[in-house]
Amino acid sequence: MAASQWNKAGTWEEKDVSAWAKDTISGGLASVSTQSAAVSSVDSVDGHVQVLHVRGKARVGMELTIKLSWTGIRSDLNPPVT
User: Fold this and answer.
1) How many other CB atoms sit within 10 Å of the CB of residue 39?
2) What is the per-residue pLDDT across 23-36, written as a single tens digit (0 to 9) for each?
3) What does the alpha-carbon distance between residue 50 and residue 39 come to, in Å, rounded to a whole number?
4) Tens digit of each residue's pLDDT (9 = 90 or more) over 44-53
């Protein structure tokens, strides 16, 4: 995302991208798993995310709270326990 044409000096401009970020984070976390844990569900993603243009440079500002459910796997037991 580039700064607006009206902001030639590139001083300060912000755009809310919260909806996109929440969808992207929820979708990405839903498929996370390792050998010892897996995300069962993404319960909520709350907060805001903004793309800021300050002095001609794009920056991201965010404040998010993410709640998820997960399961752990004890692979040292035979059979493994979840």
Assistant:
1) 16
2) 999 999 999 998 88
3) 26
4) 999 999 999 8
